[in-house]
Amino acid sequence: MENNNSNNPMQQPAQGGLPPIAIRGMRVAQTVALQEPDRVPFIPTHNNFYAYHYNMCTVKDWMTDPTCMIPVMQRYLADYDPDLVWTPVHFPIPAMEAAGSEQCRWPGEYWNLPDNTSYQYVDKSFLGDDDWDEFFKDPTLFILRNVMPRKYKNLGGLAMLNPYSMCGHCILSFAPTGLPPVQGALGSLMETGNKVMEYMGKGIATEMTVVEAGYPTFGSATCCIPFDDFADNVRGLMELCMDVVTDPEKVDEALDRWGDVTIPAAIETAQMSHQQYVFVPLHCGVDNFMSVENYEKHYWPSLKRTIDAICNAGLIPIVCCEGKYHTRLDIIKNIEPGKVIYLFEDVDWKEAKAKLGDVACIGGGMNTQTLMHKTPAEVEDEVKRMFDILAPGGGFISSNSVALDYVSPENMHAWRDAIEKYGKY
């Protein structure tokens, strides 16, 4: 059968004979390099927007089978035509149920929550004040026998495994694997893995519908910096922020050792999936959580190491600076120019442009509260005001402050139309 690509935007020549996906990719790349492209890129970030905005499937449906997002994404691309598309893949409910996740909440019968409930992460500590010595002695064993069984109730039997004895010459050391709790945990591991692979396969198919329509994506390749990753998954966010004051040496050693493993793994995953952009979400480093001095000594090294590793791999980090970042600008500017995107939620935009404009691409400028609660005219006014501050000289991406959930079509269109109206260089 003859292959007819006449309806595939990726195969259709556009500006300069390039397909649309190349035009959008070039627009973003030029902006990251602190140049002036044809116009300011439009890159919204989303939470449950895809489910809420179109009401074609629930959050539960999305987290069960991402292919339900295919018609949603077709509508979204036609409606708003972004330059980078937030990935339409969520966290898989079947896999979390198979493992018995205790640190998350999701819609559906498992937690008795409505089908359109937002996914929620629950902050917990899996490393107590008296556990540091045991952790440092052997972090991998500590995670296997202490963290995983407490984080996932169906993996409790892992606490009975001793991989060191299993490496011995006597096969009798494998006896624990014959115990029902261990076999149950191993069975749950296999089931969880199968559920993840099934969901990922459907997720790839869903994301490819976006790429084949001519749009590059971001968000599916993620690298949490060692500080946030260790806080979220081992020590607990509030505990680690307090440790910075009470036990800073322990914090620094833990982050160094954590980063040795996690950063290369995240980069390898991004490369294997052919992702150009690596999303780096930050939350522990906000102004509210630690002083400027502690940020510079104990948070920035973890962040800088991550940024450098991603850039050295030829990838582009999209660093999402959640919360207030007014006092961090003089620190985070110490990067190689033209390699990094900083997305801001709450910052002094004039200061950000003055201090970062010659080193980093700045993303933001559209307050999500404005999109949610103001009029289309007020949305347009905010776009123009931010463009006057941030667009001159290039290096600016129009994005929103907090990931989108409920936003009216009128305000989304007002935002997109204002970019076309005021964003051309």
What structural class do you assign from the helix and strand content? alpha/beta
CATH topology label: TIM Barrel
Largest sheet: 5 strands, parallel
Strand order of the largest sheet: 5-6-7-8-9
The protein's oligomeric status is single chain
Average pLDDT, rounded to a whole number, is 94
Give unreliable regions as ranges. 1-13
Integer-rounded radius of gyration: 23 Å
Shape: globular
- Write down the CATH class: Alpha Beta
Q: What fraction strand?
A: 5-15%
Instruction: Tell me what the CATH architecture is.
Output: Alpha-Beta Barrel
Secondary structure tally: strands: 9
Q: What would your notes on this structure say?
A:
With 425 residues, the chain is α/β, with parallel strands linked by helices. It has 18 helices and nine strands. The protein has helices at 20-32, 49-54, 59-64, 70-80, 93-99, 132-137, 139-151, 163-166, 180-212, 226-235, 237-246, 248-272, 292-312, 329-332, 349-356, 368-373, 376-390, 409-422, and strands at 85-86, 104-105, 120-121, 217-218, 277-282, 316-324, 341-346, 361-366, 396-400. A five-stranded parallel sheet has the order 5-6-7-8-9. Strand 7, helix 15 and strand 8 (361-366) form a beta-alpha-beta unit. Helix 17 (376-390) runs parallel beside helix 18 (409-422). The relative contact order is 0.12.
